[in-house]
Amino acid sequence: MAVIVLVLVTILLRGAESRKARILENFDYRAISCRAHTASLTEFGGVGDGKTSNTKAFKTAVDKLSQYASNGGAQLFVPAGKWLTGSFSLTSHFTLYLHKDAVLLASQDINEWPVIKPLPSYGRGRDAAAGRFTSLIFGTNLTDVIVTGDNATIDGQGEFWWQQFHKKKLKYTRPYLIEIMFSENIQISNLTLLNSPSWNVHPVYSSNILVQGITIIAPITSPNTDGINPDSCTNTRIEDCYIVSGDDCVAVKSGWDEYGIAFGWPTKQLVIRRLTCISPYSAVIALGSEMSGGIQDVRAEDIVAIHTESGVRIKTAVGRGGYVKDIYVRKVTMHTMKWAFWMTGNYGSHADTHWDPKALPEIKGINYRDIVADNVTMAARLEGISNAPFTGICISNVTIGLAAKAKKQPWTCADVAGITSGVTPRPCELLPDQGPEKAVTCEFPEDNLPIDLVELRKCSYSMHSYV
């Protein structure tokens, strides 16, 4: 009997020794933080057939992995496949990583989109006065959050929502694809975002944000499909992004009318670089119109605009309050534009009827330099506010090639003040050219903002199967 037992034990041990680890997935990526624990969505019941709802699987996975927040953090791996899901929330010290052949499909079932309150700095939803549908990927009061992949796809299947919007059938504001609020240390990178119901990426009331290597594509006629909207955020870096959309490629915001004034949370220390934008009906970068909490220290450079309505556009109005100041733009190339420069102080669209007619925005310290544009209908349309003119405008080293059917008057200016230097065609009288003897180079800060000092670490993911 003892001999039989010994033989069985020997066989089992040899069997165990003969089992080899087979690597199912193994790759490296760069991130602000690496994680000690990993898991796949399939471990929580995920099914990547494009038909089965994975909302419960995502929620269960995030909930289970949250236990590692204080123990090295966790990363959730989404394998190749089509993963249908409604809205789900993230947790702190967490990475959501999508395989290069993974596609997140936003659910068409409206019951999978919980409704939450309007943003306090807006007072109401953008589409409707009531609340708003939670974004597809959502998080609040978090720290150290990463959403990334090897150029994986998140498809918002927005046509359903666009039709509801146009038919005025929505009781709540449409969801965004990614929204992180009241959080810090955020990375959103290396993803393709398609057909968002509304805005694509919306960090709000947050700080230390890196948005990098994002491709955003939506039909150019799709409503409000803004690309990246930093909103009441501090220390943000947006770089190496390609955006085709039906609205502004980057829209900088900080609250709406009296609600934004009362909330008083500005967007500041924002870097935008190496951005390519196509948006025939909107701007490359829009400052406002919801800017009532203030916008300050925006640095944009190495920008390419192709068939876009305007370059950097400032949008505000009486009742907005707040400010837009210390704006720096350089190294911009534009092809086929309606306006190269556009500032407007009469942008309406108020949150409600309670806006204060005495709340006048302050627009000053606007610096544009080293810009080349061709096939432009009109060089500039600059319209300030009669009793609150836009001041401190500086435009230097700019060459604008007008289109064959350009406006006869390339510049229109009202209630603005500033200077120009080396600008073609000749600017309006309110922005006098300084001449070669007093040539001016408009400012662009050479110091680094804190977000520029953030270095990414090399992280690894590995999943094994024992056979």
Automatic annotation (TrEMBL):
<keyword id="KW-0732">Signal</keyword>
<feature type="signal peptide">
    <location>
        <begin position="1"/>
        <end position="18"/>
    </location>
</feature>
<keyword id="KW-0326">Glycosidase</keyword>
<dbReference type="InterPro" id="IPR011050">
    <property type="entry name" value="Pectin_lyase_fold/virulence"/>
</dbReference>
<dbReference type="InterPro" id="IPR051801">
    <property type="entry name" value="GH28_Enzymes"/>
</dbReference>
<dbReference type="Pfam" id="PF00295">
    <property type="entry name" value="Glyco_hydro_28"/>
</dbReference>
<keyword id="KW-0378">Hydrolase</keyword>
<dbReference type="InterPro" id="IPR000743">
    <property type="entry name" value="Glyco_hydro_28"/>
</dbReference>
<keyword id="KW-0134">Cell wall</keyword>
<protein>
    <recommendedName>
        <fullName>Polygalacturonase</fullName>
    </recommendedName>
</protein>
<keyword id="KW-0964">Secreted</keyword>
<dbReference type="InterPro" id="IPR012334">
    <property type="entry name" value="Pectin_lyas_fold"/>
</dbReference>
<comment type="similarity">
    <text>Belongs to the glycosyl hydrolase 28 family.</text>
</comment>
<dbReference type="GO" id="GO:0004650">
    <property type="term" value="F:polygalacturonase activity"/>
</dbReference>
<dbReference type="GO" id="GO:0005975">
    <property type="term" value="P:carbohydrate metabolic process"/>
</dbReference>
